[in-house]
């Protein structure tokens, strides 16, 4: 059975690190922690799990830190996690089964990364990342910020999920606030040329910091370069639509969403967002077209970011409202029932359930 090294870079993660390391203790044969300047008890927490703790002087370069951590590994495969990632109990068993069947011809293993969940623990935002790589291949991390692991060869898509268990820290790290944006802007000052990926993620940072007009400028530059991955192109259009929505420019929001169709088949998220715009204008007939299309495209698997709501309950709930407004009670109730299959205890569903119950009672009384 192959052996696994866990390689992590950390800084001021005393509140979450134990949960992460506990979830992999029965999976990994070696745990390597590279600390980039903690001022709390992160190292003390790590020592409960491993004695392989190293320091790395922070140089505003995530790839450099991760590559250093990888260089310290000694086992057959390398697993990487962030401190606020955990492998849920049921996924640990899947991972152990994977480890037993992992053959030497596998160069890398991608796993599902669950970034957000609903109140019931169901994934609402997820995508795949290459998590486990063969050490002998010497794969490297690329990019000072929003770094990525460049892999090639025989890549296995595993049925294993890792949960990003993001929690607001009690002690905020002042240096980490705005850190990614600061790294990008320092690179601009130095005259560095941005790759297409840099342009995309810099625009994302600008959007997250509510610099919407500037973000739009960089999304356009990224798209005009015509060198982006299809999924990033589509996501750039959707994020640009977010910026226009924040600026109150609905026509430009609609244009940005429609632009996603220039790159691939319609995505459920874009269709629902377009439907929302027409619904807000009380153009329910057109809204219905877009929500129905979202449902038809729900099985599209892309490997990119996936907002689960837009391909499950959201279009059905919107169709319930839209068909009611069009006077089609039968279709409205049908989509209410379909919505209920996904989120039965949601307040909106419970409200509609009572609404239709009263409607039917009133109708029967009149008859």
From TrEMBL:
InterPro entries, alphabetized: Glyco_trans_2-like (IPR001173), Nucleotide-diphossugar_trans (IPR029044), TPR-like_helical_dom_sf (IPR011990), TPR_rpt (IPR019734)
Top class in the EC scheme: transferase
Source superkingdom: Bacteria
Gene3D superfamilies hit by this protein: Spore Coat Polysaccharide Biosynthesis Protein SpsA, Chain A, Tetratricopeptide repeat domain
EC number(s) from the headed UniProt entry: 2.4.-.-
Domain Glycosyltransferase 2-like residue range list: 5-132
Keywords from the named record: Glycosyltransferase, Transferase
GO MF annotation, one: glycosyltransferase activity
Pfam family, one: Glycos_transf_2
Protein name: Glycosyltransferase
């Amino acid at each position: 059975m192959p052996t696994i090294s866990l390689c992590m870079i950390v800084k001021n993660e005393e509140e979450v690190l134990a949960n992460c390391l506990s979830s992999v203790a029965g999976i990994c044969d070696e745990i390597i922690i590279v600390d980039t300047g903690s001022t709390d008890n992160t190292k003390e927490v790590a020592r409960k799990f491993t004695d392989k703790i190293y320091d790395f002087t922070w140089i505003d370069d995530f790839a450099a830190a991760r590559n250093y951590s990888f260089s310290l590994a000694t086992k057959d495969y390398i697993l990487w996690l962030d401190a606020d990632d955990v492998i849920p109990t049921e996924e640990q068993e899947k991972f152990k089964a994977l480890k037993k069947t992992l053959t030497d011809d596998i160069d890398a293993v991608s796993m599902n990364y669950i970034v957000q969940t609903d109140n019931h623990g169901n994934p609402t935002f997820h995508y795949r990342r290459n998590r486990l790589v063969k050490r002998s291949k010497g794969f490297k991390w690329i990019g000072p910020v929003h770094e990525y692991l460049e892999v090639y060869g025989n890549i296995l898509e595993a049925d294993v999920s890792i949960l990003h268990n993001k929690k607001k820290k009690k002690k905020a790290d002042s240096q980490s606030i705005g850190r990614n944006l600061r790294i990008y802007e320092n690179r601009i000052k130095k005259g560095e040329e941005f790759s297409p990926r840099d342009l995309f993620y810099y625009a994302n940072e600008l959007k997250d910091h509510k610099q919407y007009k500037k973000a739009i400028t960089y999304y356009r530059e990224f798209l005009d370069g015509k060198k982006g991955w299809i999924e990033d192109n589509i996501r750039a259009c959707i994020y640009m639509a977010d910026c226009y929505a924040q600026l109150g420019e609905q026509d430009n929001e609609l244009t940005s969403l429609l632009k996603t169709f220039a790159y691939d088949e319609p995505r459920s998220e874009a269709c629902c967002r377009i439907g929302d715009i027409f619904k807000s204008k009380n153009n329910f007939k057109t809204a219905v077209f877009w929500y129905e299309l979202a449902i038809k495209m729900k099985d599209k698997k892309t490997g990119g970011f996936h907002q689960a709501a837009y391909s499950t309950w959201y279009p059905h709930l919107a169709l319930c409202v839209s068909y009611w407004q069009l006077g089609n009670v039968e279709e409205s109730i049908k989509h209410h029932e379909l919505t209920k299959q996904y989120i039965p205890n949601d307040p909106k569903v419970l409200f509609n359930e009572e609404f239709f119950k009263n409607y039917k009672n009133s109708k029967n009384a009149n008859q």
